[in-house]
Amino acid sequence: MVALPLSDPRSPPPGWGANGIGQPVRRKEDFRLLTGKGCFGDDVAPADLVHAVIVRSPHAHARIVSVSKAAALAAPGVLAVLTSADYSGEGLGPIPHNPGLMAPPDVRVRTRSIEPIATVHYPLPQETVRYVGEPVAIVIAATIGQAKDAADLLDVSYQPLPVVTRAADALRPGAPVLWETAPGNLCIDVEVGDKAATAAAFAAAAHVVRLETWAQRVTGVPMEPRTNVAEYDGVSGQYTLYTGSGRGVAKVRLDLAQVLGIPAEKVRVVCHDMGGNFGTRNLFYPEYALLAWAARRVGRPVKWTCERHESFLSDYQGRDLTVEAELALDREGNFLAVRGCNLSNLGGHATAFGPLQKGLGLMSNVYRIPVGYFRGQGAVTNTVSTTPYRSAGRPEAIFVVERLVDLAADQLGVDRAALRRRNLIPPAAQPYANPLGVTYDSGRYQEAMETALALADWAGFPARRAEAQRRHKFRGIGIANYVEITSGAPRERGEITVLPEGKVELVMGTMSSGQGHETSFAQLVSEWLGVPFDSVVYVAHDTNWVKAGGGSHSGRSMKLATTIIGHATDEIIDKGRKIASYLLETGEPDIEFAHGRFRVAGTDREIGLFEVASAAAAHPDLPEELQGPLAAVSDQTLPVASFPYGTQVCEELLSASFMDYAMPRASTFPELKTALSEVPAPTNRLGVRSGGEGGTTPALAAVINAIVDALAELGVRHIEMPATPERVWRAIREARSVADAQKPGKPS
Predict the structure, then answer these.
(1) Interior CA angle at 46 toward 42 and 52, to 5°?
(2) Rounded-to-integer distance, Cα 384 and Cα 313, Å
(3) pTM for the predicted model, two decimal places
(4) 227 beta partners
(5) Residue 431, preceding bond cis, omega within 30 degrees?
(6) What distances in angstroms separate CA 224 from CA 387, 513, 565, one per listed residue?
(7) Mode of pairing for the β-strands spanning 503-508 and 536-539
(8) Residue 632: CA count within 13 A, CB half-sphere
(9) Extended beta strands in 202-270, E state
(10) Lower CB count within 10 Å: N or C terminus of the chain?
């Protein structure tokens, strides 16, 4: 039997559990970042580092005729010039994007004319370039200046081919075909809902409103451009890639190993601090493979830093959705049905169908709409590939629905808020199966809308509009309700070890790009294990420790961490209770756990968690199954979703660089008023609903609705995004032209 000193009864020590769930704490990351001690991609500089420059195509569509490397290879400091011929000559593989359809809880779609097609994406195209900025060669030199100079000497001969950049044009007969494997450029054709029932509802409708629109292409523009450093150990055959990927180091490791044709054990992926993501870093980039390959070819670490103009050319982009949609209403203004077609511009390679699929499932938003039907298509074009970007697919869907509601209110001559209020899904109807196949778990939608209307003083807006008119200004107000679905990769892994020296090590497979995981995850551990907040050591972003995990996207991190960390802490407490019962010489049912201590119920006999960990690690007298580290692993696949929702009210930026993009500054940033709607989600123990992307989801609709409202008295009924000054001016002119043409006495 192990003899240990017993503690006196006492209150929880200062700091134990005091910084747990819901407590305001200083973020653990901030001191490091604010004092310049962060480590970002460009800070990684191994010994003997050399530099890479990517040579990119100036053509949107062209056949590569020849590449002459002689002049570039002869330039000072050049170590290698590598092309697709070198790449394919070594038998290296394509990028495994695997853009297939998602399983429930995301909407289940039905395929129509074709099964989804995944185009082949090599880091260096073998014969044909399909967008401006596609890599065609990589130049490695001793300095970045030498690499740039040599890149200018590379002679690439192209045969230009016909170009198509809009998805609708790509599907027209006779359009240039990008891939033989995707006839007519169509890569996905699916549907959701009940087509026949929807058609019947429209036939019986008293009112129908229609919208044709295009949600324009955007890109994430994180503060820190993409930067990669790769090393290769010729003795062990080990590759190390330093990068920033929101999908997580475990996924990058598996994909890179597949591209290189080696076991995953031969690849290590490390990510330090990351200066923003927004979805643009979540998929595998050609540069990951190119740098690892180049490091092996030259036998030295290789670094590539993406410059801003290069980011605009080559970062994965988002949205670019063309929509035709209709909303049917009865005479009282009740919504009867919604239908339409969403067409996604996939870019030069079909890398992701997720945004299209997620959007299709939300085309009824938060409203009681009995039936609906939507078709979803995706076409390849001569543009950069589109991938999930900040609330993938949901902002476009909500934009369309909320514009339809405003158009309906205008057609019926009713208040926009009142029309929404009439058709909102009530709390009593939850869980609610929408007409397209998604079941919302909970939500108080009207309560959120009323709170937002009160914050914005909706009732007082007419007076503010009248005051603006006296100053010869147009003032508008817009409203947008929303619901979104957050799911993401369902597998996550966490490992917790209680160390005898008073630390708790937490290893997770998520990926922080500014979300504060070091702090929020530590609060969970502190709360559930009753340990000091500062004792929790967060270990992540390195495959030497992280065995699996899905990174950060689709609001998954805290939602899944809650379950994973909760399960692991439960296991540790259960094991600790067994050890404590042995040490305290009592039955396991008599052991209570609170504030980080195990106590015999009704007595002052107790032992701390760290003392239990010490006994488990150091005392062979314990039963064999209780010896060793006091640790637990939780590796689970959790196909669950949460449904953030809310309301935004707004009362009032084409870009290749920041020279023609108006970056918002503090002095021009709008005033923001916020309120919380705290309705716990039923899918995890904290009720986490995911909030990282919800602010983006209704913003498009709220802003455009406000602009249209401001110009409504001029006859403007819709404005396409982006609402540039020129577009606003043209909308006003077109509305005035229509009004003039309708005046009595005007010739038809």
Answers:
(1) 60
(2) 8
(3) 0.90
(4) 305
(5) yes
(6) 19, 10, 30
(7) parallel
(8) 17
(9) 207-219, 227-233, 238-242, 267-270
(10) C
